[in-house]
Write a structure and sequence with these properties.
single chain, 214 residues, 12 helices, elongated, repeat, Ycf3, TPR-like_helical_dom_sf, TPR repeat, Tetratricopeptide repeat protein
Length: 214
């Protein structure tokens, strides 16, 4: 099967799933689980407005639906509505204060807004709750780097690589953190590993690192 055929198959599969879920929702409008999954599939199919409507309705029907809040928050974040994204993730945390994913999402929103100190607090809370959550370590690395806390960035990046040695992003983040911590040889090794794993390294970073290595 060619790549085009695979993509066509995916579209066909999504269409079938959407049709099945729409039928369930039509027959049982208060079926929270069906609406939640329909929202997720709509998003996957690129039908963002439909996804928003279903997830908003899911939360209206069940104000404890944390997964719907998290997923809807992600959509609003992608659309640039950080206020609504923040509101939804905070709503999820109000239900479950130890939901590490929500802490990460709030950290990402804070970091996007330039509120780096607050972002670090959110990511740090997330890794306290779930030390194996690699996205928290990756984002914490980035935030520490932005805040020029280079040694802490290296420590966070090493944690991410320890959890997933073959994560291209974790390897690249470690390379960048090592560069700013003046550990250029190890930075080069991790940059090359990131590329080997398929990461598209920023040419400006490569050039800057090569200049340091002479």
């Amino acid at each position: 099967m060619t790549e085009v055929q695979k993509q066509e198959q995916k579209v066909s599969d999504l269409t079938e799933v959407i049709a099945e879920l729409e039928k369930i929702v039509e027959e049982k409008p208060n079926n929270v689980m069906a609406r939640h999954h329909l929202g997720l599939v709509y998003r996957k199919a690129g039908r963002v407005e439909d996804a928003i409507k279903q997830l908003e309705k899911t939360i209206e029907l069940d104000n404890q639906s944390m997964e719907s809040m998290i997923n809807l928050g992600a959509i609003y974040f992608d659309q640039g509505d950080t206020d609504r994204a923040l509101e939804l993730n905070e709503q999820a945390l109000g239900i479950s204060p130890t939901m590490a994913e929500a802490h990460v999402n709030i950290g990402l929103i804070r970091q996007h807004r330039g509120e780096v100190e607050q972002a670090i607090e959110c990511y740090s809370r997330a890794v306290q709750i779930d030390p194996k959550l690699i996205t928290a370590w990756i984002n914490l690395t980035s935030a520490y780097t932005m805040n020029e806390e280079d040694a802490k960035a290296v420590d966070a990046a090493r944690q991410a690589v320890t959890l997933e040695p073959d994560s291209p992003m974790a390897r690249n983040n470690l390379a960048v953190a090592l560069y700013f911590n003046d550990e250029f040889q190890e930075a080069q090794r991790n940059m090359e590993k990131a590329e080997e794993l398929g990461y598209s390294v920023d040419p400006r970073f490569r050039d800057a690192l090569q200049a340091k290595l002479g």
